[in-house]
Amino acid sequence: MNAFLLIVIIFGMTLQQVARKAYNIRVKGGVYSFSAASALVAALLFVAVSGGSFQFSSTALIYAIAFAIAYSVAMVFTLLAITEGPLALTSLIISYSLIIPTFYGLLFLNEPIGIWLLIGIFLLLVSLFLINWEKKGEKKEITLKWGLFALLAFVGNGACSTIQKVQQIDCGGRYKNEFMMIALTISAVVMFLLALPVEKKRLANNLKQGFLWYLLCGLGNGAVNLFVLVLSLKMPASVMFPLISAGGIVTTVFISLFVYKEKLSIQQKFGVALGTLAIVALNL
């Protein structure tokens, strides 16, 4: 059963990235409407799973608002990064975001510093160097704009994981579904409000043309969050998260290279491989 849930989670992570890439190819613009619609679909999935049962607290509400902000940043800038650069490298950089909750645990939760953490950080730095290494006369595949978008997506995604962790600690493991429902709904509303003035006349067309892709992205996002919550009670985090992160990268890179025909240099491919090992090491 655990293996099945892991496969579903990895599939859900890959589905989100592929849906974003497909949307970017078929619909020009519509970043806010896509992010809003995806968040709404994910929120509705949690509403359906909850079966109408709803309990909450003011403390959890504060965390839900904070998560909504981080989630909105992650959604918008992930899509922008995929627009500006390779899907494979964008997915890898965002996967590095797990280092944010890792450092939070070290600094504020008194978690021990192990040898695998140091190895993981070293591999991560080497991976970043190889990804950005450019030979003389070689065409540069990534840009400063892509780097900025990927960095903001990295921060937003890492903040989401950190806020979830703190919320569960502070609330004694309660309000999982309610926390996600409210956070995703707030994010959807904020993104729609931003879409109204920015996308204007294109909003309805963006929603119509992108229906399939934001539906798939939202379902993938909701499924990942849902089954991570379920699996977290059945598997050690030190086993679960390395498998999810590495599996998501491998499948996304495979699709980006063989489906979307993205071109990565030998150094960048080696950097992706080291990045995958870094993610595993950081979770051991």
TrEMBL record:
| Cross-referenced InterPro entries | EamA_dom, EmrE-like
- List the record's Gene Ontology CC terms alphabetically: membrane
Q: Output the SUPFAM superfamilies linked to this UniProt entry.
A: Multidrug resistance efflux transporter EmrE (SSF103481)
Keywords attached to this entry = Membrane, Transmembrane, Transmembrane helix
Q: Name one Pfam family in it.
A: EamA
This protein's record includes keyword Iron: no
Domain EamA per the UniProt entry, residue ranges: 148-283
The portions of this protein that span the membrane are: 30-49, 61-82, 113-131, 143-164, 179-199, 211-233, 239-260
Gene3D superfamilies assigned to the protein according to its UniProt record, in alphabetical order:
1.10.3730.20
Query: To which protein family does this belong?
Result: Belongs to the EamA transporter family.
What protein is this chain from? EamA family transporter
Output the lineage of the source organism: Bacteria, Bacillati, Bacillota, Clostridia, Eubacteriales
